[in-house]
Amino acid sequence: MTIAIRQIRILDGLGGRLEQGTLVIDGTRIVGAGPDRSIRIPKGAQRIDGRGLTVLPGLIDCHVHFCLGAEADVVAAVEGESSSVTLLKAAELARRTLQAGFTTVRDVGFRDHAVFALKHAITTGLTPGPRIVAAGLAICMPGGHARFIGREADGVAAVRAAVQDQLDAGAEVIKVIASGGVLTPGTSPDDAQMTVEELQAAVEVAAASGRHVAAHAHGATGMKNALRAGVHSIEHATLMDDEAAGMMRRQGVYMVPTLSALATTAACPSGCGIPDSARSKAKNMVKQHEKSFRAAVRRGVPIALGTDAGTPFNYHGDNAQELERMVTLGMTPMDAIMTSTSAAARLLRMSEEIGTIEVGKQADLLFVDGNPLRRIDLLQRPERIAGVMQGGRFVAGPLSRM
Ligand SMILES: [Zn+2]
């Protein structure tokens, strides 16, 4: 089946913009994209009038947790429900994410290996959801942050075994915890966790299977430990210092800011149900996090979008709020879109297939009513999502009913 959309604004995900474009999709792939006059529409193609619409690559969120449902107390929620219930919940959250225009996500920490079953169910068409790159359990030190969705490992040998178990179960990325965190009681975000040797061991074992490592790190020491160990992305990077920023830029390591996570927790009034320890840690760091993000933009640190969706009041399906937060902190709308398309695809090493509108790529596309370069918040308005296409098939929005 061939679909041709005419007179549509095309944002290619690489910074390019075309006001009067034509896009042709055949089967699962993009077969034509360019100015209206230059694109020949094949006979028999279904034609769609794209006037007033903008099309961009399907968005990518590099940091979500499908096992967390944005509950006020996520630790209690996970500990209070069976793993089967978590999996059912995760399927619903994946569906909402896809409907919001996020056609690919990286899940960087799930309570067990069921996330690989979810991925399988989505890939085989059993249930709708984004393409998933999943870590499975996060690797942390004994008593460390994220242990409620992690595997505790003490010493190099234990870390190697834990990483290998994730890989054997189907992990396509390994998540390590290099500092304390906000949501785990008794850990301080500023403290480094896991040793450089342990982090190095994780990178080595992952590399032997061709996999990359994502490191959770708020404090600068934890960030630098992870960077010395050779990880490929720093999640949060909340208290980044100059040295850490310089290392990230030189080593080409991505910052995945997750501004939405700290902001939603910090904005919660007392009595909202978020444990006080988490609320006060977030409140104390939110300004510094914004400063770190601005510094990263200024210094040319590679940035890929991540929301930490699933953390308290940080809802799956609201992922596009992260773009508005980045724009509010000084990033241009075009650059914010690139962090969630081409840059995110590079971090996920999926650039050959997704992340841009180019001939030959998978037709993972988001159609928006209006111009998100003028109003980035359009991306988070369900009534403005005209269509979501995944692998050449409309899966959400009014266009899917044509
Ligand atoms: Zn997270």
Automatic annotation (TrEMBL):
It comes from the Bacteria. It holds the Pfam family Amidohydro_1. Residues 54-395 form the Amidohydrolase-related domain. Gene3D superfamilies: Metal-dependent hydrolases, Urease, subunit C, domain 1. PANTHER family: ALPHA-D-RIBOSE 1-METHYLPHOSPHONATE 5-TRIPHOSPHATE DIPHOSPHATASE (PTHR43135). This is Amidohydrolase family protein.
